[in-house]
Amino acid sequence: MTQQQAAVAIIMGSDSDWPVMKAAAQTLTDFGVSYEARVVSAHRTPDLMFSFAETAVANGFKVIIAGAGGAAHLPGMVAAKTTLPVLGVPVPSKHLQGQDSLLSIVQMPRGVPVATFAIGEAGAANAGIFAASILALTDAALAQKLVDFRKRQAEKVLAMQLPE
Ligand code: RP5
């Protein structure tokens, strides 16, 4: 039996990134999008990073969400080795609160783009939504789920009451 290949790869530099990156995984689950999550470190497992990126298309991935903290080279280096869309999530770091992660990910040289999201959980969740939006271009049912999600979100905000 052939196993169905996940549409989205979620990779991160360390298992310590998972508490943030699981927001991307949860979002994809909510939209019914298949994903595979794993640790791939740019600095500690560079060979794995390159082989992951080089085989990502052949492995059936359509979008890669990459999260890292500190000297966050993972999203950019993966983008250097694949033409799949790479969504970068800056993970908060111990000493610089993720500003280092953000700047490392966002300042890509012309020609090798990484779509960079907000620092932390909101960024990870938005990367999940963005991945769903990309896949929805060729999936009408998923596009409808995104419309429904926006509607529910708006209704929630419209129903907000402030304390007296
Ligand atoms: C980065 O270094 C990882 O993405 C993580 O955010 C950070 C710290 O990693 P650990 O020391 O917790 O493994 O490569």
Describe it for me?
Strands 2-1-3-4-5 form a 5-stranded parallel sheet, sandwiched between helices. 38% of the residues are buried. It is globular and about 55 Å long. α1 packs parallel to α5 and α2 crosses α3. It has 164 residues and is α/β, with parallel strands linked by helices. It has one domain: Rossmann fold, CATH 3.40.50.1970. The protein has 6 helices and 5 strands, in the order βαβαβαβαβαα. Bound molecules: 5-O-phosphono-beta-D-ribofuranose. The site of 5-O-phosphono-beta-D-ribofuranose (RP5) has 10 residues, from β3.
In a nutshell, what does this entry contain?
Keywords: Isomerase, Lyase, Purine biosynthesis. The chain has 164 residues and is α/β, with parallel strands linked by helices.
What's the arrangement of secondary structure elements?
Elements: E1 8-12, H1 18-30, E2 35-39, H2 46-55, E3 63-69, H3 74-80, E4 86-91, H4 99-106, E5 115-116, H5 121-136, H6 140-158
Parallel strand pairs: 1-2, 1-3, 3-4, 4-5
The chain binds 5-O-phosphono-beta-D-ribofuranose (RP5).
